[in-house]
Fold this sequence. Notes:
360 residues; 2 strands; mainly alpha; two-stranded antiparallel ribbon; 16 helices
Amino acid sequence: MNGFKAFLKRKNIEISAKRYGIDALSAMANGLFASLLIGTIINTIGTQFHIPFLTNPVATVAGTEYTVGGLASAMSGPAMAVAIGYALQCPPLVLFSLVTVGFASNALGGAGGPLAVLFVAIIASEIGKAVSKETKVDILVTPLVTIGVGIALSAWLAPALGAAASWFGDLVMWATELQPFFMGILVSVVVGVALTLPISSAAICAALGLTGLAGGAAIAGCCAQMVGFAVMSFRENRWGGLVSQGLGTSMLQMPNIIRNPRIWIPPTVTAAITGPIATCLFHLEMNGAAVSSGMGTCGLVGPIGVYTGWVNDGIAITPVHWVGLILICFLLPAVICWALGLVCRKLGWIKEGDLKLEEA
């Protein structure tokens, strides 16, 4: 047993919730951003501003025409897998072999492709690391094993994982359509909390294909956390903190949350308020890329995703659409969380300096 543990340590194989549930998941989200999300944004810019280079096909593969954004989106599987391998600190030959693994698992996983990529890429990475540099013909063995394991797992696991993720995502979206008030609260709070935790809410939304009203509730929850923390902590962190949390991530508050969990009350209650407002009052839907549902105001990806959905669905955008988007993503989180933060400060639950960021 000690020999096996020593082997794992030598190979840098760490079987832990942090390595797989935080590091790998967060890296997968980065891979999605650099492919599917960027591709979607490029397509939207090209369509809205009538830029021929971005709207005309630039490549034809197997009879399918691709625009610049389409090429980026098509590489989401490889991008996710390589990002996961990078997070797991794979040696070069394993990392490069994951391109094929990611493409296969994403394609075979269907609508739940990102979840399939997560599982398959992790297993293929660790097995690839285990055999890496163990033979004199490493340049042959390591890619063969990594790709072989990845393809086999993709054929065996990816369809089932994809179907399960798709089913669960459809269930959440169906429940939100059926009970927009209660599910608006639940989805908003859960996804918002996931955004602030050191995991990836974006990857979770992508894996479940969370769009529609449920996606709108998810955006509301993410914005409540990001904008809420940014405004509530302005007296401690000033403009640097406002930008880093409002356009970056509320995850920066995690050390402070650990020290005083009560600082999490205002943004979480805010999410519970804005979620049903988004679903019941404004019927806010996120029909762009599902990954955008878990991004909130990070780089304004969430609002851009909503706008992309309007464009893709051919919706006649009215002032009501814009009012709903601005209120849910910016104004309501700022005002409600700020007010709740004042109440918590009056009660002594939040003291001066509790929200101070080390970076600000």
